[in-house]
Specification:
It contains 2 helices and 9 strands, in the order αββββαβββββ. It is of the alpha+beta class and about 180 residues long.
């Protein structure tokens, strides 16, 4: 019985220690930008969940595709129905990792540029991505994360109708802006 109690205390201690290394948000901000000579398209999503484990460098991001907001209702409808098929593929996810944790000291306030790589899933298709993210370690257990990467709709089997191909960029900028708080 004494051995069981020691094991239980050990598990609780380890769990509390791991839990204490996680930072998260449910109101992260992602926006994308498509620029062509015919049209500029921007969409914003402020309901993005992200979790960062500062001990392992693991990062997880998930969002609902229908949460992207466009300037024009028609663009939003076409995005969800025709392009990303939000009813069939409602979520986009990123499972990644900071590949060089030695570049950041989570115990010191400051800005740190870190490489992140992982697997991005959009429209049911998963591809590897790599980018740099700037982490700002702030006081009060807050970490800001900002970055940008390029996504090609063709890489995610997103079919753009011929009539719209000149209106949508072949490479789209995706910007990330999170403020993560310690759990």
């Amino acid at each position: 019985m004494k051995k069981f109690a020691l094991i239980l205390i050990g598990i609780l201690f380890v769990s509390a220690n791991i839990y204490g290394q996680e930072y998260m948000t449910r109101s992260g901000y992602i926006w994308f930008y498509s620029q062509t000579p015919l049209e500029d398209i921007k969409a914003h999503n402020r309901q993005v969940a992200c979790i960062l484990n500062t001990e392992t460098g693991e990062v997880g991001v998930t969002l609902l595709m229908k949460s992207f907001e466009f300037k024009k209702d028609l663009m939003q409808r076409d995005f969800n129905r025709q392009y990303v098929e939000s009813d069939k593929y409602p979520k986009s996810t990123l499972e990644g990792k900071i590949t060089d944790l030695s570049k950041v000291d989570f115990s010191e306030t400051g800005k740190y540029k870190v490489p992140v790589s992982g697997k991005l899933t959009i429209h049911g298709v998963t591809n590897k991505i790599s980018t740099d993210v700037t982490l700002t370690v702030k006081e009060d257990n807050v970490i800001a994360a900002k970055g940008m990467f390029i996504v090609s709709p063709a890489d995610y089997d997103i079919d753009i109708p011929k009539v719209m191909r000149d209106n949508i960029a072949k490479e789209i900028e995706v910007h990330v802006d999170f403020e993560l708080k310690k759990r």
